[in-house]
Write a structure and sequence with these properties.
The structure holds 2 protein chains of 2 kinds. By secondary structure, chain A is α+β, with helices and mostly antiparallel strands. Chain A is about 55% helix and about 15% strand. Chain A has one domain. The longest helix of chain B has 24 residues. Classes of the chains: A alpha+beta, B mainly beta.
Chain lengths: ~190, ~650
Amino acid sequence: MKRLPQLLMALSIIALLSLFKLPLWRIKLIAPQYPTGVNMDIWINKIGGDNPGTLQNINILNHYVGMKMIEPDSIPELHYFPYIILALAGLGLLALLINKPWAYISWAVLVILLAAVGIYDFYLWEYDYGHNLSPTAPIKVPGATYQPPLFGKKTILNFTAYSYPHRGGILAGISILLAFVAYWLKKKKA
Amino acid sequence: MNRLTLYSIPILLTAFLVLVTNGCNTTGGPGAGGLVTNAGAAEEVYVAPGQYDEFYAFLSGGFSGQISVYGLPSGRLLKVIPVFSVDAEKAYGFNEETKPMLNTSYGFVPWDDAHHPELSQTNGQTDGRWIFINGNNTPRIARVDLSTFETAEIIEIPNSGGNHSSPFTTENTEYVVAGTRFGVPYPQNDVAISSYAENFKGMLTFIQVNPESGQMEIAFQVLLPAFDYDLAHSGKGKSHGWTFFTSYNTEQKNTLLEVNASQNDKDFIAAVNWKKAEEYIAQGKFKEIPARYAHNVYSDETHQATSTMEEKVKVLLPEECPGLVYFLPTPKSPHGVDVDPSGEYIVGNGKLSADLTVHSFSKMLTAIENQSFETTISGIPVLKYEEVVGGVVKEPGLGPLHTEFDGNGNAYTTFFISSEIVKWKVGTWEVLDRVPCYYSVGHLMIPGGDSQHPQGKYMVAMNKITKDRYLPTGPELNQSAQLYDISGDKMRLLLDFPTVGEPHYAQGISADRVVPRVVKFYPIEENKHPYAALGEKQTKVERQGNQVHVYMTTIRSHFAPDNIEGIKVGDKVFFHVTNLEQDWDVPHGFAVMGNDNSEILIMPGQTETSVWEPKRPGVYPFYCTDFCSALHQEMQGYIRISPANSNTPLKWSLGEDIVQ
């Protein structure tokens, strides 16, 4: 299996490109009157949910406590993120053609770095939504902020919020893993 | 006491209870299994909080004009669907969108007497798509869509009076039928009542149902003598293609019917070969006669109903269409006519007869072939009784009305006078069991019990008399129903519950055939209502002469606009309210002070219109009537009414003051 690293790298690129089809992240809000939860899904180019009304429903909830409307059109990341993914896929292809350990490891590290930046950016948005509250909010709880968790579970007023990678996000993680395996195999053979 | 003794107490106690409960269940005879229920029964009807019932039950509301939807086995009321009666709660017949639903050739008729719900079927099995029901008084048939649980269509039946033998379906819902209970002059005319036998007729109507949309259309009518056509059921399996109608008053009397219509030893079951009718229609052997009847259709896209007045109908005359109709003599004013799941046996529930007569379909076909006719009435052959009767259940009880089937070869017949349900074996005609009903049972219902594939687990008895069953509520009492377990050899009473209006017939269906199709809200992008505002940016107020159209939206927790000025006394104000919500169970309501109309209750994605003609100058509040959210109480607004001759400019706003 001489071509195994290249095959793995190809799979890694495909896994990354799945982000065009699958949501990256899910924030799930559970409360007694929302038995199946309000499921907000974040794609690389849009924000939606498990039904067309999800974003509107979240904005309705958020406006009670003075959080800003989530308006996907005004989030620049959703416009340029797809290009970053395309560029990464292109570089991945280059690494596959070069087919050297350093090419694989460089690409994997680059993806990790960009992912880290992305997660930090996500945190900043969450912080902004959770802290930057309207002074005319109908419901004001002294000292309360409504930042959703970056990863994991958190109680926000009557909701329990869960924030985890969704299918696309998991596949992106697998993509990185595959690139590392490709690197390791290539290095072992060399 | 040692440990062993301690443990043995509950064990012995359990054993004792088992003996006692089993003992109760196996005692036969009238009264047993009914008077005393037991702890086991409570468990059998217990549906834990948050859990779903296994079956939907649709009970007609009788004089309430509605259908009430229950869960079985719990007996929990799930919804009341307005069909023929206005309903202020849902603004049915009050908002502009649904007023056309109650239009008839007599104008707006806000009430009817709804008797027999009938589920649509595919291959003889209930399919959970639609439920049909008849309006008895001003003859109409309605179709309720079970994806929305809303009335989708109502068609008026011409040449009919007392639309009672309706709307029983064929096994693929090719047709639902509508037979007249009261003979009426044909054509309707100013004649002496005493000319009944000469001028009056009885019409049976076949309504074609579109297999995709469910939309109804009167295919043809069959003109018969002016007997009272009481109930119907269509054939199934081998008898598919035929529909059977019971009749009484074959004496054709027009006064003191309780005596005069009970004289003939035998009345008739009319067997109509509708496949033959289709042939005659195709051959053009019909008369097209003028008839005015309304056809009202509601659209889930425009969220509006339209009413069309139809002008004519095709009528088949049995004299000119041999083989179309036969009469089967049946003892003593038969009420229900029920076809067993195999399609072979046709039960004529002769309500004044001591026995229960069951006709055989194959014997009927042979009798027709051999022309074993007793006589002919208006060109309709009367088959010889002995040649068609398939069996008789001997002295099962008093006053048989209706029979349903369990799919295991058993039939269950209600007896009004002896207030009981009797279980008997189809084919051997032996009585197997009997249970009392509280009191004077009319119809009964087994889910699928009139189809080819009954789901014979539960049986509901719907009673005409309540008396002492529940806490008293003055002279007027709700009707009572009983739920029985029929899964074993013996019928067992499980539950007793009050019902809405006066249920006549009912239908039941396992929930899994309905739930997957149920709509949770209407997608706003599919809203084609001509006055919809599909976002707050589209809200506006427009004046056209003295008509003012308010394009309003609702979303938690405000109206847009919520301040309106420039309306004058003498104006007719149309509030077109679009609910922008896109979540399940977030309706908003709208009501304005002093409006001689109901509230409107708008489902997510829907637009409804309330009309208001303000009477006096002033500023009037309006508000959301459905507790929608934490800030529901704040969901309110004002509309300013100026004197008729004033010049207050037309303005509206949300979130800021109107600039004068």
